[in-house]
Amino acid sequence: MVGFSDFIESLYELRKEIATFRKVVLHAHSPHSFDWKSSGLNSKDAIQGWTKEELAFIEKIEKCDLDMLAITDHMKCKFACRFSTKKKNTELIILPGLELSIRPSPPWNKFRLHMLAIFPEKFSFEKASKIFPSDLPDEEDRTGKEEMKVKNVEEFVKNVHECGGLCIAAHIYTDRGVRRAFRQLGEDSITFYDPREKLTEEEEKRIADDFKPWILTAGFDAIEVGKYEDKEHYRWISDINGKKTSIPVLLTSDGHCVEDILNKDRFTHIKMTDVGYNDLEKAFKFPDTRIRFLKDLPDTPSPRILGMQISSGDGKGFFKDLKIAFSDNLTCLIGPRGSGKSTIIEAMRYLFGYNLTLDQITDGKDLSKKVRELQEATLTNCVIRLAFIGTDGELSILEATFDPKQDYVTRVYDKDGQDREISNIETSRRYPLRLFGWSEIETLGREAHRQRELLDRFIPDLHKKLEECREAKSSIIEKRARIESSIFKMSDIIARNRGEIKRYAEYKADFEKYNTPEVKALFTDFDDANAKLAILEKVRDNKEWSSIFEDIVKINMLRGIDDVLEEKSSKIKKWWIEKKLSLNIDNLQEDIRSHILKGQNIFKSLSEKLEIEIQLAKKEVIEANNAIREEISEEAAKKVLADLRRTARERLDRVERLRKEYYGEWNHFKSLLKEWREACIRVVDLKHEITGKRITQKEAIEAKLNQFKTEKMKITIDFKPGQDRSKFREYLEVGDFFSRDLHGNYKQKKWPEKVSKLCNPVELALAILGNKKEKLIKSFDSNYSQNSISFDEEMASLIVTTLYPLSKDEDAEINIVDIDRLSKIIKVAEIDWDDLVRILLNDLPVDHLSPGQRSSAMLPLIALAETAPLVIDQPEDNLDNRMVGKMLVDILAELKEKRQIIVATHNPNIVVSGDGEQVIVLDALSSHEGICKVSGSIDKQDIVGPVIDIMEGGKEAFLNRKRRYRLD
Predict the structure, then answer these.
(1) Which DSSP category does 302 fall into?
(2) 448 falls within a domain
(3) Does residue 968 form part of some domain?
(4) What distances in angstroms separate CA 193 from CA 109, 202, 784, one per listed residue?
(5) Mind listing the pLDDT tens digit for each residue in 105-151?
(6) Are both 555 and 614 inside the same structural domain?
(7) Secondary structure, 3-state, 212-235
């Protein structure tokens, strides 16, 4: 079995260049801190220069689930510096640092403040020690409770930076934190408050307003808070001296034992490409996208694509051998036009089977044709392979060889190459993907039903009800076929013997006329003998067993094998001879035939016995008939009467057999019709349930869609329960449901419009089939006009009476069905209807707006609906740059942590402001060949260069614009 280990391994290698969230603790103590929660450094025994307690600490730390740890002992850093340079059996990065106690000049001198200084990995103890004033004792003589007197906080922060480190305000809400101290400082920093005193709202607000600009200008690289909830109080973005400024907020660990340090709830998750001091420093510059707490991250991972490969089988595909990895967050495909960005997206479309629904995209520009032409031009004879990880963490490989004549050929394998035997990726729901090619987002704004489908994805578990409804609709269609089959059987019975069943009343009257009491007594034995004969013949005529035996005996498991083997190699023929012997097919088949022949012989014996009994019964009939003839042979009048009674009885029996058969089928028809009614009612009930779920979620969905709104953009949902009946109206207008002969000038009277607004298709069908015109006599206040429309009694009566399909045939004394009418009724119930749901932008339907406005309204809809990977080709199309910068980038930045996003783009705002974790730079060697030049996060310099060249027009053009805008 051929596995995919090499392919998967290569993707993981490429993913090393992707920025991802790393688990970080920047405030942790070692046994060298005075308040370490253990016995302290009592052991003086040293092993290769390390004490036993130091080695025990190191061993536990190196086994932890962390990517980066800063050791910040109180007023000490020698151990941290040594540990940072130690060769480790782990990829964990240790940063040396220390926790400093400082006492500023008045009025801050009442407070002993704690600050963290964090230095680069392998930073020397001598360099780190420069942060201390000369009057402090050497580290070996320090207790860790010492403090440093500084002129002010700002000067201290500056000093840390000059020493080569980052300065973090430690646990700012504790008694040793700057926020606690600042809270006790009033106006002009001279009025003090008793910590126990409760402040008024005005005082709290004034202190907060004073603290905000101070913390942003003091120079801190970050601040620490103690609780998740505290973070939101410090996520400011303020304009300080004409520059947008924010402060990174970290979750303090302040671990004084290994268990506290390794508490996952205290980790700060920081996005980095290469785990280290430099990437930590970069992350602090973009705290809004780079710093998260555990509660910010999804509880369960979303489904995601690891990466994909496109290989040309004959070298004629656009990519000869492209292999790319995707970030779990935001991946940007960039490159000049014609470099293959859309080819990658269209390869995904084909792989996931969305060519099957390609023709449903209607934009008036023949988009379906353009997509197929692009696929054929760039993917012919190419193998497309993709690694997908589901929500259960299971990895699957999706693989297809592009065939322009086939819309779906994808196979799904596990990582070892075992076929998962999934016939359709989309219906399996195991590999969800939402893909929007070029201009498809704008197209959504024109189609109300697709807007409704997207909105439905916001509603938990609604897809289950929708699936139930689809199954119920399918059941209606399936039952129609069975009902029509039953009607055809009844029609066939009526037509037999030239419609003799319709003479039943006549034949019955004839028989009753001739069947006088005297004649009836004469025929008693004859009638009994005929009844016995009829029963025995009925048993004999049930020949299913006989036919079953004959069919089974004819079965040959080896039939057609010679034809299959005819053109096969001698090797295959030899293999089959051996396989046939090992399976023992010939002998087993003979054994089966032998058992069947035994059963056939038993049945034959029974049949012979029945035939004897039938002959005896026939003899009894003859004898009874002879007895009658003998009795009346001398009386001509009695003979005539007996003969007429006999023939009347035969005619009546013949027709009664037909009527019995007919009513057997009629009862079957009624049971099918009952099932059909129940299925119809089930559809209506499910539609109501679906409507209810949509109504209850409407306001929540609107709020979600508007979380990124601008001043000129408000999205609302126009919801009219059950009123999307356009298909119903069209069917009534152009179909044959109404006819001019029966209903007059129904179009001029606007019957299709009225009926489709007043009731749904199932309500119409059930009202007619129930012969209940009162069900149709109801009023409806139109949402589309000021006038009320209604079913009047004349209109309702005419519809029901002309289309009611059931009646009584008085001659045959049977209930009959008008198949044409019933087919109309059943077919109309199959017409779909739904809630009328439309997206409004600033209270106007989006389908009435410009392409740009439609796109701006649709973007939140497609982006926020679910957690499946989202692939978009040029999402900035039809949007102005202001909308891209203000809305699209915010959506991507917020969303990418909850679902994987892959975009092909020409807009630098998406890559840079969106903080792309993976940027794939494509280029065209010619009009027929593309390559991936480089890939990696936006942190990488070899990515920044192409971004500037491709998306900014080059460094000179970028700097020229900067000068033009006077941004120096």
Answers:
(1) P
(2) no
(3) no
(4) 15, 14, 65
(5) 776 666 778 889 999 999 999 999 999 988 898 988 899 899 898 88
(6) yes
(7) HHHHHHCCCCEEEECCHHHHHHHC
